[in-house]
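Thread: UBC core domain-containing protein, structure

OP (GT): Posting the sequence first so everyone is looking at the same thing. Length is 147 residues per the record. Can we get the structure tokens written out before standup tomorrow? I want them in the notebook alongside the other entries.
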Amino acid sequence: MADRIIAKELRYLTSNQVAGMYVSPTNYVREWRVTMIGPPGSRYADGTFHLRVVFPQDYNNSPPRLIFVTTIYHMNVYEDGNVCTNALNAGWNPGHSSVLEVLMAVQQLLQVHNPKSPARGELGRLFQTDREQYFRNCIAHTRQFAM
């Protein structure tokens, strides 16, 4: 059942491209590649970020994992690339949530940082104490690793 849901969502996303986001399958049905372009006007603008989407055996009852392959300076992304967003945790609604919603939430994270739930405490603290330095670091890191 999960494989059919995953295949249906993949067909939808590959035939209805979302601006700044490109989804492609891998050789394994439960893993996708995503290329996300940093949103215009954000600290990640023009950066090219590669992500993996990994589906659990019990998908859609459990959310997929989103992992940044491209290193990113963001308080809501763990150092190993795993994304920390409500859409993957408490906000996941089995039978109603979709990968598209999760990917859109990640795009939103590239524009609006969530200091209430930092995956990296030191970045969350810097955001709170010196926001301008935090944003300069985002830009510099994007230029170094995503362009």
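GT: Both are above now. Quick notes for whoever picks this up: The mean pLDDT is 91. The helical segments are 2-15, 99-109, 121-129, 131-145.
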